[in-house]
Amino acid sequence: MGSSCRPRHLSILMATLVTGLIGTACTTGGGVTTQPAPAPAPDEQVTVSVWSNFAHRELNGLNKVLDGFRAKHPNFTVESQGSQDDDKITQAIRGGNPPDVAISFATDFLGQFCSSGAWQDLGPYLERDAVDLDQIPDAVRDYTQYKGVRCAMPLLADVYGLYYNKELFDRAGISGPPKTLSELREMAERLTEFNPDGSIRVAGFVPDLKFYNHRPQMLAPHWGAHWQRADGTSGLSADPAWREFFTWHKELVDFYGRQRLSQFLASAGQQYSADNAFQQGKVAMMIDGEYRTAFIDEFTPDLPYGTAPFPVADDQPDRYGTGYTTGTIIGIPRGAKNPGAAWELVSYLTTDTDALVELANSIKNVPTTKSALTSPKLSVDENFRTFLEIFAHPRLVSSPASPNGGAYVKFTEDFATRYLSGEVSDLDEGLRKLDEQINAHNELSGN
């Protein structure tokens, strides 16, 4: 699951905190990397510290891969610390005592990391070592750089697609998953089951945009919606796809009834637990990442389910098969004591095919190089294969990098809550005000 089990919907408070911390970190010394630090000599004993937010099974998986690195580099001592989130890493940078290698699950902060220099520019290392970035899909390259500065490398990816319950499909007389959004809407209504008192027993598809991974950034690509205008300003009100996106969800909310849907959501289990509503057969279809296959294997191995690309707008059938991707990123913080040694480890974890495959098999994320994707050592079943195919699609999408912690996503989620609850009556005007809010926030951030 890797980055999967850490929500990417970040609070404005957290984004502001990180902005402040990184702003301070920029004054603590050290400049932009222009020359790569040399690798340690083979007989030079060196210690490299690695901080990540991995824990339990995931941390064990990472540490096993690090054991493989140590076997190839016996002069290295690698100190791996889990449960270290971005707040802790950023405060360590601010305090001048960062780890040599930082692993983050929050690509929302990538723009801040790169533009501030809090994470060092890896360009000189990539150029020196002639690293083939063409091995990495375009969308993944996009979310690991900001304005031409590559301060991170991808370390596995999350890819989002449709999960559906085959038993519920059979009960409703539906033979296969939807491919268009109109089919999704129709099937959602057919699959929904109500209790005698009118409450929802099974939801065909949950149209709440804060439910699990039913988030704007995961769903919007299937409407063909774009976040920004050509000049980089917010463009939701200018893109008709966003109106269709919100209208589609509002109509399905109205089908359920806001109060009944709220009651259903209040009783839904935690997203990353055995009580997940899809795993319990209470939701017939949902959008989620490849890592859900590992949760199902662990908690409900007998669940009769399938996976497929998420449906797309009826007038854009050529989009079918694509999806949204994000993932874990890894870099070298400003002030790292052993940057040359740190790069050796970063390079190993992100470009060595066997290392990537071993970590992908352990954590059940998608490996981020083409050679790892096609490795015969990669464990793939029918349901996981769907996400490899989505990842390989030429129209794979990621969110645009932002200097302000992805605040535009949080603002959009909050707007969705107001609109779907009926608080916003004029959608066009609401989207115009949303654009103004996002642009004003960007201006205050100095962008």
UniProtKB/TrEMBL annotation:
Residues 1-25 form the signal peptide. Keywords: Signal, Transport. GO terms for molecular function: maltose binding. InterPro entries: SBP. Coiled coil: none annotated. Belongs to the bacterial solute-binding protein 1 family. This is Sugar ABC transporter substrate-binding protein.
